[in-house]
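Request:
Um, any thoughts?
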Amino acid sequence: MNLKIGTRGSKLALTQTNFVVEKIKILMPDAEIEICIIKTSGDIMQDVSLLTIGGQGVFVKELEDALLSEKVDLAVHSMKDVPGDIPDGLMFAAILQREDIRDVLVSRNNIKMEFMPKGAKIGTGSQRRGAQIKAILPDVNIVPLRGNIDTRLKKIETENLTGVILAAAGIKRMGLAERITQFLPVETMLPAVGQGALGLQIRKSDVDLAKICASLNDATTAVEVAAERSYLRALGGGCRLPIAALGKLDGQLLTLEGMVAAPNGTTVIREKIGGFRDDAEELGKKLAEIILEKGGRRLLDLMH
């Protein structure tokens, strides 16, 4: 069997894809596996903010097109890049076990977040991170940041930043954990929907491939991410507000925490609910309703 796996071309994306390839080789020792690098609009347009070029989905659409046109058989995604809705005809055959869900600070002279000087310049390309930092440290300046992990780390020097915020998962997968100044607790920095999880996307019609991938699925991560993604969809897939969510499964019990904020961090609406693992989708919808009622709807209206 020949298997073409589609991925973005960044060092992190290739590291993640090779990790998946090794797992698939164990299941399909005779398969001829080819890695196909696909340029996404998010990779090509490095100098514009993600919101300008379409927000969520800019790292995903071209990979999904390649699946639909049968250029590739499987795409490896960071789940935090995947919009709430995926095209008809495609499905996630597996959600792999999650890496660390937290965000981290990498700073000049290892200054921790609580000791940031007034006017400190903190780099991030994420509205979600920016809003949550401004909520706790209104005096810092958020500097928009794009590019791969290496580029962002270099910008601490080249753009004279006090620090940058990145996902722990990416830094760890790249073997750069020693650069971390501080892990930011989820109490102050709720992660992105799907953060730390990799998803294997295939065509629904590829029944055999679905069976093979199914054994790589991590049931706990899949339930947590399903709840988070249901919350994202219920808020409106193209939502241009900072959004965060974290599902936590403990046995049969699932807790889901969600946040919506004003981009400048002046308003943060954060709520938590609990239920059963089988109700992941419903919990996501219910949490979105609660947050919309508590002021989320007003924030959304202000953005339109």
